[in-house]
Amino acid sequence: MSVFDQHRIEPGKKVDLRKMETDGKDLPVSREQCEQKFRAQREEMIELQERLYAEGKQKLLVVFQAIDAGGKDGTIRAVFRGVNPQGVTVTAFKRPTEEELAHDFLWRVHNAVPAAGTIGVFNRSHYEDVLVVRVHKLVPESVWKPRYEQINDFERMLANSGTTIVKFFLHISKKEQKQRLQERLDDPAKRWKFDRTDLDKRKLWDGYRDAFEDMLEKCSTTSAPWYVIPADQNWYRDFAVCSIITETLQGMAPKYPKPEDLSDVRIDD
Ligand code: ATP
Ligand code: MG
User: From atom 25 of ligand 1, which residue's Cα is the shortest distance away?
Assistant: First the structure.
């Protein structure tokens, strides 16, 4: 089974995150194999991105969600290193501004989806509106509950308009999160990432797990599948994410535009 199939959530499948691997060490691949394959695959992904950009027709949307310190930033840094920056936009979705809150929840998201020929990367996304918003009761259930369907409709519309969508949930253990938050406290170079509110969110771990499970169960569709990536080890996480993006791009099969016949062209001295 390829990495592609192994981590994909089939539409309608029941998800129990407690039973799903967070640790790359227990998987049947070694660190050396993953690191080697990762570098080769990234080269291939870079080549495919160049074609996507030159072709200028299709779009790829890559969504990342995870608990705090789950590794979204690190994955984006590692996987997209070396791509042509003109063809990739990364959008980090933070707490909505007043203007954003005055609109429907998809307003700011729709504005950030990739244009033809480009890859759009979402660091957090519209899923925050059924995660943090649900767990912290920022809106009543009658408001967040219909959002799963609204999200599926929105993603179907994007898919029908030429956007291929892949969504990654970076799955880390509670123990690993503790270690990473501790590192942010201990290492002066990482201290800027420490956010006291992450500790309040950690106390709501089980509520977040329920919300993540619902998101995965209700919103993994054929046109916009979710992948759950064991993410305690960066080397497995980066390898798996890069493999899936590369295979997705292969499936999109972008082509350089057919060279025009320019045999009559002469360039003056
Ligand atoms: P890192 O993981 O590196 O700390 P981050 O993604 O947590 O980065 P921050 O600026 O620390 O970035 O936090 C962004 C915060 O915005 C998160 O706590 C997230 O839950 C919150 N957020 C994002 N979207 C929404 C939303 N729609 N409603 C409320 N809060 C949101
Ligand atoms: Mg944070």
Answer: 95
